[in-house]
Amino acid sequence: MKKSIKILAGITTILAATTLAACGSSSKNDASKSATDKIKSNGKIVFGIKQDVPNFGYKDPKTNEYKGVEIDIANKIAKKLGVKADFVPVTAQTRGPLLDNNQVDAVIATFTITDERKKTYNFTTPYFTDEAGFLVKKDSGIDSVTDLNGKTIGVAQSSSTKTGLEALAKDKGIKFEYSELADYPTLKTALTSGRIDAFSVDKSILSGYVDSKTKILGEGFAKQEYGIATKKTNTELADYLDKEIKSLQSSGELKKLTDKYDLKDASAK
Description:
By secondary structure, the chain is α/β, with parallel strands linked by helices. It is 42% helix and 23% strand. The protein has helices at residues 2-32, 35-42, 69-81, 95-100, 115-118, 161-172, 184-193, 203-206, 235-251, 253-260; strands spanning 44-49, 52-53, 57-59, 66-67, 84-89, 106-107, 121-123, 128-137, 152-156, 177-181, 198-202, 214-216, 221-226, 229-231. It is elongated, with a radius of gyration of 25 Å. Residues 44-265 form the Solute-binding protein family 3/N-terminal domain.
């Protein structure tokens, strides 16, 4: 009986060791997979995108489909990888945390490249260059930047626009008051209701909010380069995405996409 127990214990030990070895081997195999290999295994790449920026990332209320140049770029990258693109809506406030928490693989959401942000995230070569501007009411009497002296400017929370405005005010010798709001539709509503005197963000974004009672001032400031962002540690995916953006540029495909949405790249200015 004792001999049987010893044999059984020995078999149990061997089985446990074999299981642990198999698990360890599996873990090592998973760890050795590149970022793109993992994406291919999952059959999808998850992008953080905007849903309130016409022409870039916008959710069509009639079809519930996402549309815009950034959606098209994301779909092309996914197709090249042989996977589908999944989309997670983000704001200027949430796009960073969603990347940090691995809830998205990459963010393509009018994410302006800055030296400060490059300390935290990887960015691809810019796929579009814009400049910030102002949306005002046509009957406001505001026709130039200097007319905004002492006025309240609405900006999106956690955006880089406020930094550019502060530099502009200093350069012009004027002063702005600021109202930081959650998103672009809220900013447009605030302009319409008179809570703010101007809505400031990149001009191509403003173009999606122009109506018969508003206009974009001719003057622009603070050129904004948009790149696809990834976690700082995910250099392999960052390199892959950068290569794909450069390929879209060199092939002329990227220009076709921006032309499709009538977007004017400010890098040519």
